[in-house]
Amino acid sequence: MAEPSAEPEADLSGKWASVTLLAVCEVLAMALWFSASAVLPALRLEYGLSDLQASLISSSVSAGFVAGTLTSAVLGLADRFDPRRFFMVSALIAAAANLSILWVDPASRAVPVLRFVVGACMAGVYPVGMKMASTWARADMGLLVGLLVGALTLGSASPHLIGALGGIDWRFTLAASSGLAALSAVLILLFRLGPNLGRPSSFRPSFALEAWRKKSLRLANLGYFGHMWELYAMWAWIGLFLNASFTLRPGGGRAAFYAKLITFAVIGMGAIGSLLGGLFADRLGRTTLTMGAMALSGACALVVGFLFGGNPWLVAALCLVWGLAVVADSAQFSASVMELSDPALVGTMVTVQTCAGFLLTMFTIHMIPPLTEALGWEYAFAFLAAGPFLGVLAMARLRGHPDAVKLASGNR
Fold this sequence. Notes:
The chain is mainly alpha-helical. It contains 17 helices and no strands.
C-alpha cells in the first residue's frame, strides 16, 4: 500500500478545507447512530414494541461499537490501513445495514442485529476521524479534535429536535440517514491527510496494552473514564428528567414539547463547549481545562436534583450550563492520548480509549432508572458526580507527570 503523501506545512487553506470536510463527513456518517433515537417513538406506536425491544434497538448500537473498537484495537486496523478507505468501507457497510431495517419486521430480532452492525462499523468512523484530524495538528490539536466532537454533539442533539417538530415518517428517517452515510463514504475520499501521519504499523496485538502500560496514557484514560461515567447517562436521561420536572408545574400540559426543545439545547450546548474547550486547552493547558470542566459538570450533577419540580427557567439554565461543561473536556482526553502516543499507534490508542469508555457508559446508562425508582430524580443524577471528581484526580496526577510537557505544546 502506498503511503499517502504529506501536505506542505504552510498550506493552511488546505488544512482547514480538509478538516471542515472531515467534520461534515463525521456528522453525515454518525447520523446512523442517532437515527434509532429519532424513530423509536414511532416504532413503538406503530408496532407496539415492548420496553425490552426498544432498549435492545438502542443499546445494540453501543454494544456493536464496543465490539468494533475492541476488534480494531486488537488488530491495529486504524494504524495499518489508509484511514480514508477504512472510513469509506465502514460507512458503506453501516449504511447498508441501517437501510436493511426497512425490509425486516421492526419487532423482529433482526433489527438489533442490524443496529449492532451499524455500531461496530462506527469504530471505523469516529476514532479514525480523530486520527485523520490529528494529521493536521500544529499546536491546535485540541481545537481540531474539539471541532469534530462539537459536530458530533450537534448530531446527538438532533433527534430531540426531530421529536419536538414531529411529522416525519420513520422510514424516511432511516433511509435519509443511510443515504447521508453513503454520501460521507464518497466525500471522505476527497480528504487530504496532513503531514503528521505516522507510517503504517505492523500487526502486534500487544500494542493495544500500551494504553494501560504507559503511566501517562493510563492517567489520561482514567480521566476519560471519569468523564464518560457521567456524559452518556446524562444525555440519555436529561430529557426524561426535564419532562418529569416540567410536568409537576402548573400548566404542565406542554411539558413534553418544551422538554424536547430544551433537551436539544442542553445537548447542543456541548458543541459550543467542545469548541471553547479546544481553544482554551491549546492555549492554557490540557489538564487545566479537563479538571475545570469536570469539576463544574460534577457540581451540576450534584445540584440539579434539588431543583427538580422547581422554576422551569432555573432548571433549564442549570441544565444548559451542565450541557456545556459535560462535553467541554471530551475532545481533550483524545487529544491528550494522541499527543502522548507513538505517532504510529495514534489510531489504536484512541480506539482503545473509546472502546473502554463506551463500555463503561453501558453500565451508567442503565444505572439511572433503578436509582430514580429508589431515590427519585432528586438524587439519581448525584451518583454521576463520582466519575468527574475521580477524573479530576487522575488529570491532576497527569499534570505532575514528566510526559505532561508533550501536552498542548507544553501547556499542561
